[in-house]
Amino acid sequence: MRKGYFDVVAFLAPINSHYDQFMSYRYGLWDVLSMMLVGIALFKWNILSGKKSFAFYGGMAAIGYLIGLSINYYELQVVLNGQFSPVSIAKSNLTYDLGRIATCMGHIGLIMLFSKSNFFDLAEK
Questions:
Q1: Quick one: residue 115, left, alpha or beta (phi over 0 = left, psi -120 to 50 = alpha)?
Q2: CA 108, CA 54: separation in Å to the nearest integer?
Q3: In sequence order, which residues have a C-beta less than 8 Å from that of residue 104 and are 6 or more positions away?
Q4: What is the pLDDT along the chain (125 residues), one digit of tens a residue?
């Protein structure tokens, strides 16, 4: 890694090619598709259309953030207490998807609260 830029690129090209060909389809594709299916379900349940009440979206944001950020904090503590060891990282990955979905629901609830409020109407005037 102490050579010139093009030497490093030539050295890393087969490694990057392997990850692009293997990892994207093994992990990345299914990760994206699963989140898209969650979005489709939220759309079908009229959550993304703004038809639910302010209380619904507020509860969605509060519960989503409460669960998601708690799980994310737990994962952070596991990794920090394990001093970034591979075992601690693997242990933190056990709850990663649950924390991510819950935090995502919190984000959606907050975004829907903003979209239902008159905040954007006031910004135009």
A1: alpha
A2: 13
A3: 35, 38, 64, 68
A4: 678 999 999 999 998 888 887 777 777 788 889 999 999 999 999 999 999 999 999 999 999 999 999 999 999 999 999 999 999 999 999 999 999 999 999 999 999 999 998 876 765 65
Q: How many CB atoms lie within 10 A of CB 104?
A: 16
Structure tokens at 98: 């649950």
What's the length of the chain?
Answer: 125
Q: Which residues of 46-58 are buried (b: 16+ CB within 10 A; e: fewer)?
A: ebbeeebeeeebe
Q: Residue 9 and residue 12: Cα distance in Å, rounded?
A: 5
Residue that is written with structure tokens 């935090």 in the block: 103
pTM for the whole structure: 0.77
Judge contact between 46 and 77, C-beta under 8 A. Answer: no
